């Protein structure tokens, strides 16, 4: 064998050896990967290490010292504590803030919530914004608080002030549509005492007094135009200050009113 051939053999041999090692290594990694996936060895080992870490850190000053709550008015403290189920000494690093948030956000009065960790002392701080009751819905002789989004607040509620009463099936779901229109005139809207959703189609509005006030019959369509007409009639002619039983705005070019006569009989007039 020539010198050139010997040099050639010496150069090739280490590459073959390295190649074999790389091939064996790849096969070993592939085999390990299959076994790991099949038996979840890495996941189990990580879980075990984390569990041991949490146990150790809880001993060395990472236990929960307190839970603080901000923004609570109608939400009871006990309902929050029962929902989150946190105990003094729980490892603050181990607590899942997303899970705590979900539990707090599910409480009836909670509109939004934030949950944060605070250290030294170790505190879980919960801040909530509560729903505002905009009206009371009467349905089947029962009364339910309704929030600013037209949603029922599923809890017992005793009104602390005069609230707008809405009546009829489907009223909460449709009330925001007319509310956005009526709120543009604060003075007239402030005199509204009740809104009755008729046949799941249109509204009767009762002003000044639920039992003895004036009922305004709104149309099914063109509600905004009818409301503007009512505002104009009240400002220019004081129509809601008259002794009326109802004002009918369902006809586009006509206003029908019913007057209470002295002897109690009703008198219909149109304008």
Offer a few descriptive terms.
disordered N terminus; Ubiquitin-like (UB roll); three-stranded mixed beta sheet; alpha/beta; 12 strands; 3 domains; nine-stranded mixed beta sheet; 39% helix; single chain
Report on this model:
The structure is a single chain. The chain is an alpha/beta fold and 271 residues long. The chain has 3 domains: 3-58; 61-130, Roll (Ubiquitin-like (UB roll)), CATH 3.10.20; 133-270, 3-Layer(aba) Sandwich (Rossmann fold), CATH 3.40.50.11690. The protein is 39% helix and 26% strand. It is built from 7 helices and 12 strands. The strands form 2 sheets. The protein has a 9-stranded mixed sheet. The radius of gyration is 36 Å and the shape is elongated. The relative contact order is 0.06. The model is unreliable at 1-13 (pLDDT under 50).
Question: Biggest β-sheet: count, sense, barrel?
Answer: 9 strands, mixed
Series of H and E elements: HHEHHEEEEEHHEEEHEEE
CATH topology of the largest domain: Rossmann fold
Radius of gyration: 36 Å
What is the number of independent domains? 3
CATH class identity of the largest domain: Alpha Beta
Q: What strand line-up does the widest sheet have?
A: 5-4-6-7-8-9-10-11-12
Overall helicity: 25-40%
Strand element count: 12
Kindly state the mean pLDDT as a whole number?
Answer: 81
Distance linking N and C termini = 124 Å
Can you tell me the CATH superfamily of the largest domain?
Answer: Cell division protein FtsQ/DivIB
Query: Do you know the CATH architecture of the largest domain?
Result: 3-Layer(aba) Sandwich
Low-confidence residue ranges: 1-13
Helical element count? 7
């Amino acid at each position: 064998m020539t010198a050139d051939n010997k040099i050639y053999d010496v150069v090739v041999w280490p590459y073959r050896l390295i190649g074999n090692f790389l091939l064996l290594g790849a096969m070993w990694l592939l085999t390990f990967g299959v076994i790991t996936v099949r038996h979840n060895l890495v996941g189990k080992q990580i879980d075990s290490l984390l569990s041991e870490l949490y146990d150790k850190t809880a001993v060395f000053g990472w236990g929960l010292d307190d839970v603080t709550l901000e923004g609570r008015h109608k939400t009871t403290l006990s309902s929050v504590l029962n929902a989150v189920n946190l105990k003094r000494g729980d490892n603050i690093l181990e607590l899942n803030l997303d899970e705590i948030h979900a539990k707090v956000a599910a409480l009836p009065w909670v509109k939004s919530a934030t949950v944060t960790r605070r250290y030294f002392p170790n505190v879980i701080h919960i801040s909530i914004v509560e729903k505002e009751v905009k009206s009371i819905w009467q349905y089947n002789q029962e009364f339910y608080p309704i929030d600013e989004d037209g949603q029922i607040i599923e809890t017992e509620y005793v009104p602390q002030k005069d609230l707008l009463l809405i009546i009829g099936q489907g009223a909460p779901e449709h009330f925001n549509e007319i509310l956005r229109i009526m709120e543009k005139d604060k003075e007239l809207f402030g005199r509204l005492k009740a809104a009755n959703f008729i046949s799941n189609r249109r509204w009767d509005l009762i002003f000044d007094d639920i039992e003895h006030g004036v009922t305004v019959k709104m149309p099914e369509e063109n509600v905004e135009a009818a409301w503007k007409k009512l505002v104009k009639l009240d400002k220019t002619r004081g129509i809601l200050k008259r002794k009326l039983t109802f004002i009918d705005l369902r006809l586009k070019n006509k206003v029908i009113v019913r007057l209470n006569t002295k002897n109690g009989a009703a008198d219909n007039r149109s304008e």
